[in-house]
Amino acid sequence: MNNWHTGICKTNNISIHYTRTGGNNPPVILLHGLMTSGLCWTDLACALEKDYDVIMPDARGHGLSDVPDAGYSYYDHASDVAGLIHALQLHRPVLIGHSMGGMISAVLADRHPELLSGMVLADPPFISVKMQREVRDSDVADQHRKVRQLSLEEVIADGKARHPHRSAAAIERFARARLQTSMAAFDVLTPPYPDYKQLKIKIPALLVFGDKGVVSATMATALQGIHPGLKTEQIAHAGHSLHMDQPERFAAIIQAFLHSLPGEKS
What we know:
The chain has helices at residues 42-48, 74-87, 100-111, 129-137, 140-147, 152-162, 168-180, 217-226, 242-245, 247-260, and strands at residues 5-11, 14-20, 27-31, 53-57, 94-98, 118-122, 205-212, 230-239. The chain is an alpha/beta fold. Helix 2 (74-87) packs across helix 3 (100-111) and helix 6 crosses helix 7 (168-180).
């Protein structure tokens, strides 16, 4: 992490903050989920930095990026990532997105496949409109509003109680990211989401999901029927936060996919 640096990208009239490992290697962009931030990908970035230039942006309303009054749809987020790619002059990066970041990746790949060389969707919110309404109408935003009243130490203590097997460093990163997440960011939960069945996948893509997450094995098989080129990989003993539940297995799957791409290291 000694050579990592941070920067600000101006795009779509806002500032997007990012952390970057650097180096003259193929670029990989890691897109986080709701209530987290770019630095929450630190463990995976450490596993990839030897072979890749890893860029970890904070989505609008998250981390150290701007918090505009409006513009939190998946299309807005995807436009921000496209702007980041252009601003940093990245040559066809690979997108790896978890949850919200997975849907953002799918939207960008549908709209601008020419910008990308591949993508990984880690348990994206591919859910029905009915379930989208249930999520929106749940207490998730109210719970977050209460969390924002707590101190960092209190959020860290709660994280340790909930996830005793996670490292102290990871728990602190997620706690800081939680407190940095604006209430405006929850606008992304407004239905309807982009129709995942209609999004075209024209680039090499991998769907990674756990056995206790959002995406089921049945859905993964159905998605392969819609997108014949889509690869799928299930991780045992993992929920929605599969990259945190099984970090070593997740990193190994990501590395194998990256190495399989045309022009990458074999």
